[in-house]
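Q: Convert this sequence to structure tokens.
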Amino acid sequence: MTRVGTSSASSTIDLKTVFARLANQVGRLGMSFELWDSSLTRVGQFESRCGLCAPGSGCQARCLAVSAKAARVVAKSHKPRQCSTPWGCCVLAVPLRRRRRLIGVASMCYPPRELLEEEAFQRFCSQMELDSLAARKSVLRACRHSRNEAGALLQVFEDMAQREQDLRVARDELGNLSANLATTYEELSLLYRISGFTRVTQRPENFLARTCRELLDVSNVSAVAAMIDTRAYAEEDITVIAGEIGTEKETLRRILADFVAPKLAKDGRAVLANDFAADNSVGCGPDGGGTITNLIAVPLVAEDKVIGMLAGLNKTDADFDSIDEKLFNSIANQAAVFLSNNRLYAELQDLLMGVLYALTESIDAKDPYTHGHSQRVALVSKRLAEECGFDEAKVQRIYLSGLLHDIGKIGVPEAVLVKKGRLTEEEFEKVKRHPSTGAKILGGIRHLEDVIDGMLAHHERPDGGGYPFGLRGDEIPVEGLIVGLADAFDAMTSHRTYRRALPLEVAVAEIKRHAGAQFDQSLVEKFLLIDHHELMEEMHSPVKTPLTVSLAHEGR
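A:
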């Protein structure tokens, strides 16, 4: 992982919470309590429980001095210490550790019962400059333990402190575990959601856009961007952004390409820039990158090559860290798998389409007058399907149905196909079998199963006068109706062995005239909305030779 301008705060245990809990427990034993951190800075206020160490009294000041001295010894030796004050109070100090590291020192002190002896008490009052009559009542309440119990109390105090430490550590670790589990759950949920819409048939930019939106919802960043390098993967640059950072899309792409991509390409690891705006090595300032304060970028790797990146911009609650890196890398790995599969699918689809084009060309080549007919029918079918408002997948199926609609003519004798005169009844029966023959040819290709209906029914008619089954009205799949109309339109506007091409206006008029009989009425209405001159330019150059024959039902 490459870090640029990063900063982090070391985690410390909450000693104030430890102080409050230990002071309460020690106080129940009738003892005063103090706590210091690892630098021997006092934590919290001195807790006096004996009634003698009143705030501001000489007794309290002397007790604090002895306790501080004991704490220094313990901090240096890392061992518990038991000692006494010159006036007879017992002082106990123990180290606080976390994973063998000293994090503080705790001490407690108490006046022993031996202090109640007349001679010892008078000496104590004299040293503390106390009135013996006023002090005796407080001493009677405070002296609950003897000096001989100091060793056992030290062990109890050490166990108490260690138990409090263990409890605090356990709570911290439980909190961290809970936070990590929540983060992991969000990450797994995100990966699950992304896997749910990972379809290799969709466009890469659509997949990346949704992935960025999903990642934006869980990563506490202002924006998530995905960028694909055209030289490494795509035919054109792909940049998608979810969220807002106040930087134009092209500007952001330039920043990522110029200052982040080289680091990813060099190291192949994540780049964390937690001080992006101030670090000149990542480029900021006049290029418009000043709106980016911090970022994380991970590589998208396909076929052992960095093809782009997934980036999070402007984390809102803290610096980017290893948890963010893990999340972004997990999503990037899944996205890279999709991109690899998508490209492989595209290559296979190109191969399949190449084979299909070659196959249809071989069929069209049997008759020089129908050369390119299949591709023109496919084009018109596609335009008509789009006019009907079908989704992209159905438009593609209809396009393929149009492309393959005449593939069954491979079983029709060439002499019949190129015959200039009218076909005999026997010859026409052979032609009428080509939809069924085509369906048999493609029936074993699973990838093309959903285009068979359109191909098989492209010579059916709403009035029942079509073939091969004589279907009527709603019995005919819409794919067949579309391909049938497209087939007739190209047949009328192309040269055939038995006639010249019809003028465009005549062909359109014939389609209108046969609406409801040969062609579906609603499809004809959709067809009439298309710019036919533009359509003809796409199909072939306009044929201006006049024709007197009107055969809307052609397309044999």
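The chain has 18 helices and ten strands.
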